[in-house]
């Protein structure tokens, strides 16, 4: 199983913790968009409004069962999957090279990929944004 997830912690019960994490995460994400797409780009405007805007609204304004956006960091996913009987299947060096080539095609200065315990993490500057990991069932 392959998991691609935002590498941020929007699952905190306290509003101020979610607000702070959201501010840092989405500021980095919007900076990343700024470096690769002009502000007038129709695609960028749609992504900002329909995807990220809705996520931010849900993270900040919803509680309990109404809140759907509950992103967690890679280490939390690893703990949960380990408890569920999965082990991390490290991505190959070739997969990391292919990921770097794909990222280079977008001319996104400031974006970088790093390998973390067999997983690939996409960062803006030093801020992790997304992680991709592969998992196998131990049974």
Descriptive account of the structure:
- This protein has four helices and five strands, in the order E-H-H-H-E-H-E-E-E.
- Strands 1, 2, 3, 4 and 5 form a five-stranded antiparallel sheet that branches.
- A hairpin with a 2-residue loop joins strand 3 and strand 4.
- Helix 1 runs antiparallel to helix 2.
- The protein is flat, with a radius of gyration of 16 Å.
- The mean pLDDT is 92.
Key traits:
5-stranded antiparallel beta sheet, single chain, alpha+beta, 5 strands, 22% strand, 139 residues, 46% helix
Shape, please? Answer: flat
**N-to-C terminal Cα separation, in Å?**
14 Å
Mean pLDDT, nearest integer?
Answer: 92
Tally of strands? 5
As residue ranges, the low-confidence spans are none
Question: Helix content range of the residues, please?
Answer: 40-55%
Q: Could you tell me the radius of gyration in angstroms? A: 16 Å
Following the backbone from N to C, one meets helices and strands in this order, namely EHHHEHEEE
Strand content: 15-25%
**Could you say which structural class the secondary elements and strand pairing correspond to?**
alpha+beta
Total of helices: 4
Taking the sheet with the most strands, its summary is:
5 strands, antiparallel
Write the layout of secondary structure elements.
Blueprint: E1 2-6, H1 15-36, H2 42-61, H3 74-83, E2 86-88, H4 93-104, E3 111-116, E4 119-124, E5 127-137
Antiparallel strand pairs: 1-5, 2-5, 3-4, 4-5
Helix pairs in contact: 1-2
Summarize the structure.
The chain is α+β, with helices and mostly antiparallel strands and 139 residues long.
């Amino acid at each position: 199983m392959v998991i691609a997830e935002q590498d941020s912690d929007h699952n905190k019960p306290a509003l101020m913790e979610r607000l702070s994490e959201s501010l840092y995460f989405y500021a980095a994400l919007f900076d990343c968009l700024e470096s690769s797409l002009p502000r007038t780009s129709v695609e960028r405007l749609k992504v900002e409004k329909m995807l990220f805007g809705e996520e931010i609204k849900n993270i900040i304004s919803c509680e309990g069962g109404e809140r759907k956006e509950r992103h967690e960091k890679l280490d939390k996913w690893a703990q949960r999957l380990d408890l569920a009987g999965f082990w991390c299947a490290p991505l190959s060096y070739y997969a990391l090279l292919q990921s770097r080539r794909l990222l280079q095609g977008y001319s996104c200065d400031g974006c970088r990929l790093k390998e973390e315990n067999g997983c690939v993490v996409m960062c803006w500057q030093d801020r992790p944004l997304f992680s991709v990991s592969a998992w196998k069932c131990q049974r």
